[in-house]
């Protein structure tokens, strides 16, 4: 599988692969980078990895706890 991450501008929906046209959604993966976790999407057909900008800031939430107590 290719490890290059392709950045995509998210608008209303991200279901169709912009590289190969596969139209039945994506697999997901997470990747930690310093104090941020990225939520990435993998096309099941062409296996390209996409970043639509979804992240979790670990400094605000704490590692392993995306829902801190208020």
Q: What is the topology?
A:
Layout: E1 5-7, E2 27-33, E3 36-42, E4 49-57, H1 58-61
Parallel strand pairs: 1-4
Antiparallel strand pairs: 2-3, 3-4
Write structural notes for this entry.
- The chain has 70 residues and is mainly beta.
- It is 6% helix and 37% strand.
- The chain contains one helix and four strands; from the N terminus they run E-E-E-E-H.
- The protein has one helix at residues 58-61, and strands at 5-7, 27-33, 36-42, 49-57.
- The chain has a four-stranded mixed β-sheet.
Coarse morphology:
elongated
How much beta, percentage-wise? 35-45%
Structural classification: mainly beta
Topology as H/E string? EEEEH
DSSP, total strands = 4
Strand order of the largest sheet: 1-4-3-2
* Low confidence ranges: none
Throw out a few tags for this protein.
4 strands, about 70 residues, 1 helix, mainly beta, about 35% strand
């Amino acid at each position: 599988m290719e490890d290059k991450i392709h950045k995509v501008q998210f608008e209303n929906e991200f279901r169709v692969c912009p590289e190969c046209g596969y139209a039945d959604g994506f697999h997901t993966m997470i990747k930690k980078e310093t104090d941020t976790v990225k939520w990435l999407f993998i096309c099941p057909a062409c296996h390209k990895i996409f970043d639509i900008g979804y992240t979790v800031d670990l400094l605000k939430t704490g590692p392993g706890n995306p829902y801190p107590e208020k």
